[in-house]
Amino acid sequence: MTTTADESWVGVQSVAYAGLDALLSVHSLDLCGYLHVGADLGPQLYLRRPTLGDMDPAEAFRLFSSLRDLLEAGEGPIEIDGYEALALASVTPTSRGLWVAGRRDEPLDERTIATVGQLGRAVMHLCAEAERVAAHDDAPSIGRVAIETTDTDVHAEVSVVRNGGERVGAGEATTALAAVAWATLAATDPTLKLLAAEEDTMSDSRVALVLVRDVPGRTTVGAALVNGDPLRAAAAATLAAIASFA
CATH topology for 5-134? Predict the structure, then answer.
């Protein structure tokens, strides 16, 4: 039986909240949450402490933004919005996660740190498994590629087709190839960063080359023959770079 993306999301939500509730049942915490980025959804924050009712919209947005930024920084002890906390990160080919727990103006003791770590690793593993099971074997392909040039930069839109669905990403850069690469990342995995997108000649053939870096700092390159369409080649090279992380 095929697992749908919606079923995967429900599975991640159930596991995340169960893990957060289990943690709160044994330790008193002021910050307790899990940020999950899957293959088909953007960042989803599952938060038990503080509750959304305890924060005004500006505080909630600031906390979400800070946690999202921590996906780039890795894991370890952190100070965030007055909380002394521990952040744990998970990176897999199909998902990324950030498990965070802490207290306001008070560092976690060793016993709490041990529980946060053990439970967090287990929960993130199960959430990653839910994403992996939902992932199909169909390789993504490039649908539509479009650009719009202004006086200062290039705006691109790229659609990526996978498992019968289509996602559209947008990107901007000073060159068309870079804009297309950014748009392809936005449609596929927005946590990845573009380092370079260029066209070169190799053995009398024009080739698009795209260099990408993931959250842990790994770097990979993708390549595709231009064949008369450098923009589509840039998108294809970006997909090739993403696939090499798997």
Answer: Beta-Lactamase (3.30.450)
Contacts of 231 (CB under 8 A, 6+ apart): 145, 147, 156, 176, 177, 180
Instruction: List the structure tokens of 56.
Output: 């005004």
Contacts by 198-206, CB closer than 8 A, 24 or more apart: 199/226, 199/230, 199/233, 199/234, 206/230, 206/233
Nearest Cα to Cα of residue 91 among 134, 133, 131, 147 = 131
What pLDDT, on a 0 to 100 scale, did the predictor assign at position 175? 95
Q: For position 71, what pLDDT does the model report?
A: 78
Can you give the pTM of this predicted structure? 0.54
* Dihedral sign, Cα of residue 230, residue 236, residue 237, residue 242: positive
CATH 3.30.160.270 at 141-243, yes or no: yes
pLDDT, tens only, 156-174: 999 998 767 789 999 999 9
Rounded Cα gap, residues 59 and 83, in angstroms: 13
**Range(s) within the chain of domains with CATH label 3.30.160.270:** 141-243
| 36 contacts 64 by C-beta, under 8 angstroms | no
Angle at 216 between CA 173 and CA 224, to 5 degrees: 50
Residues carrying CATH 3.30.450.40, the chain = 5-134
CA angle 86, 188, 179 (to 5 degrees): 110
